[in-house]
Amino acid sequence: MVHFFRTDGQGSPAFFEPRLTKAEQTEGLDATFTLELTAVGAVDISKGDHLIYKDDTGAVRDVVVVSPAVTHDSGGLVTSIVCKDRIAVDAADMFIEDQRNTQPTAVYAILDKLLANTPYQRLDKSTQTATISFYHEDLWTALCALSTATGLEIERTYTVDDSAYTDGTLIATAKIGFVKQLGDSSAEPRRFDYGADLTGVTRTINADPVYTCMYGFGKGLETDNGGYSRKLTFGSVNGGKNYVTIDDAAYARKWGIPDQLHGKNLYRIGTYENQDCEDAQQLLTETKAALATASQPSVTYELDTIVLEDGAATSTGTARGPVHLGDSVAVVDSELGIRLSARVSKRVTNLLTGQTTITLGAQGESFTAQTQSAASSATASATAAIATAQSAVATQADITPTVTRVVQSGDGWDTAATLASVILLEDGLPKIVYGDKEYIFDPETGIFKEA
């Protein structure tokens, strides 16, 4: 049973023993974090109060009450409490006037400047670099922008020890940093089987639009009088075209806008914008990557799982305890013909029962059906690899021969195999792992090379 320790906004302890009927924690790789409580009766709690607790994984959490509400109806009094992560709430109220990093700067150095004069400590020392500026924005927006610009994920930790107690108050020590990936993606994926520790699977084709063409826009260009005019485009390094396209006849027939009047298919056009980008070639690369992502419908899987204690015997081996945000998991539902492997992008936990619902990342290439042959699975995965590599300025013609060579023995695979689970991104570039060999993409030659 979870226990919540309540303080006011300044850390002074306060009574909190509600009769809870709901305690639901939601966290995502996009750095969102909420706690929703429902209690019988009118609960004494105020906006700005803190709740400190340990969740089902043993992690200490510190959340701020943002929206308490009491409802009185025929069923009696009910209190609803919505809380958000402490760093996200407080950092949204801290202002950055003007902070510029006009040259490639280590992320830890950028973070040190952002966290100066805040109550937060830096968690890591990421040496990845970024060129990014922050102007008239809040600290949380800046942190999220840094995450987006670098492809790193935000990590937050809270600790409660002797140093957290001062003159009768309790304020958890808060740290924030950036990591390549949250969770554990190095070990063998945690496996869930329907009928064992998996009670439900929902497969959703997301409503996001599918584009066949994309324009890219960067930072506004400075004029002689100190103002800003049109935004940066990449036509100067792309044959005069400020857009990129996917020109494949079959693809156009499937996803283009049919124009019967003129006997052709029109592009479905999207836009990509990075207000910090000042380099046309970099903008072109980023726009290609954005189109590669938006050119296929994304799929998410939502799983209802049963958390078993570490070491508990299951039909598939030994349980490994709770799954964490960012972990790699493998899922098997033989009745639906589903075998997939992907990272946990969202995690919703009932803290009263331990029931957890996890969502697997919205990646079209992150799943495979058991009914697919190994060869068709390899072909689909190779196509995904090509699209990913194109985002790193290669062309399909450059990459196809190498990917074909890598997967040509796909017919010999076990029917449950999926190459998609071993197409990785390393330092922003795609890497294929096939058996005991690795093939790393070389942006200079546009092909995958054996490591």
UniProtKB/TrEMBL annotation:
It comes from the Bacteria. Residues 173-371 form the Tail spike domain. InterPro entries: Phage_tail_spike_N, Tail_dom. Pfam families: Prophage_tail. This is Phage minor structural protein. It comes from Bifidobacterium dentium (strain ATCC 27534 / DSM 20436 / JCM 1195 / Bd1).
